Amino acid sequence: MSSYKEKKVISIGTVNELTGLSVRQIRYYEEKGLIYPERTTRGTRRYSFSDVELLLQIADKREEGVQTYEIKKDMQSSKEKKDKMMERMLRGQFNAHFKMR
């Protein structure tokens, strides 16, 4: 079961109200590959609470003068580190379960 924070149920207007970002800014961050809303059958964007938190982090970095390509690079690097850590944890669990080294 997924966390409520991951459910994509929030409209772009509500994201605008929660973050203070303009609708154009939110769409721009989507265009740059920093955020990935779901689309309804009618094409309406839907965001999660995690997306809102991410948009606030992006906005903070932009205020500090960080360019969007740098933010994307940092996000990809962070994801790769998390993936490697998860792989090591799973490998450790597998090895412990089957008593391997």
TrEMBL record:
List the PANTHER family: HTH-TYPE TRANSCRIPTIONAL REGULATOR TNRA, REDOX-CYCLING DRUG-SENSING TRANSCRIPTIONAL ACTIVATOR SOXR
Q: Which Gene3D superfamilies match?
A: 1.10.1660.10
- Sorted UniProt keywords: DNA-binding, Repressor, Transcription, Transcription regulation
Q: Which residues form the HTH merR-type domain?
A: 9-77
Instruction: Return any one Pfam family short name.
Output: MerR_1
- The domain of life for this entry's organism is Bacteria
Q: Which InterPro entries match?
A: DNA-bd_dom_put_sf, MerR-type_HTH_dom, MerR_fam
Q: What is this protein called?
A: MerR family transcriptional regulator
> What would you give as a GO molecular function for this chain, any one?
DNA-binding transcription factor activity
